[in-house]
Design brief:
alpha+beta, 2 domains
């Protein structure tokens, strides 16, 4: 069945939907959950996004298998890491609204990158507007190609995270070069966003 990529305006009900899903997951995972985080674009107030909630259950590394078993017990379908180290993905229980649930250990680089990008978007409305415009453009170009859509966003996502983590100049601006890759420019210097093949970062929203 076709599942086209559609970007919609921010919905004020997204936080409530996250809370509903968080409560259900928390009830299953119990005391092994260190935190349950709302991630992806629906976690950023005012940001256009695909209307699908992303959440991640954070656990200590030694509790990873226990958390997986407890989520499977309430109907989630464990899908492994789907090629992304540092997270375990799940299919939704039968009859539940579509959402993306993950489990990540506290030492996960994927988790660190997801939270860093979310927080960067929350703090910088201009960056959020740029990201929303990019997503709308890519949603038209890759309407039925989710992998292509995710890959096309990856340099922007990684570049924004790198700028935050390396404390690059706030005047640094991201621009698309002739090869289709994002570059950071600021104070007379140019910083190439890392190649996604060297990073596990994947932001699904």
């Amino acid at each position: 069945m076709p599942d086209p990529i559609i970007i919609v305006e921010s919905d004020p009900m997204w936080p409530a939907e996250f809370e509903r899903l968080r409560t259900r997951a928390a009830g299953a995972v119990g005391d092994v959950a260190v935190a349950i985080e709302h991630i992806g674009s629906t976690a950023v107030p005012g940001l256009a996004a695909k209307p699908v909630i992303d959440l991640v259950v954070v656990v200590e590394p030694q509790d990873l298998q226990t958390s997986v078993e407890r989520l499977v017990a309430i109907g989630y379908v464990h899908q492994g890491n789907l090629g992304v180290e540092g997270r375990e993905a799940f299919g939704v229980p039968k009859g539940e609204r579509k959402h993306h649930l993950y489990v990540s250990p506290t030492d996960s680089e994927e988790l660190r990158a997801q939270l860093a990008f979310r927080d960067r978007l929350r703090e910088d409305p201009a960056l959020g507007a740029e990201y929303a415009a990019l997503k709308r453009e890519l949603a038209v170009r890759f309407r039925d190609d989710r992998m292509g859509y995710t890959d096309a966003k990856s340099d922007f996502v990684t570049g924004a995270t790198v700028r935050l983590e390396r404390r690059l100049p706030e005047c640094a601006e991201m621009s698309l070069d002739d090869s289709g890759r994002y570059q950071l420019r600021g104070q007379g210097r140019m910083y190439l966003a890392p190649d996604r093949r060297q990073s596990a970062t994947v932001v699904s929203a």
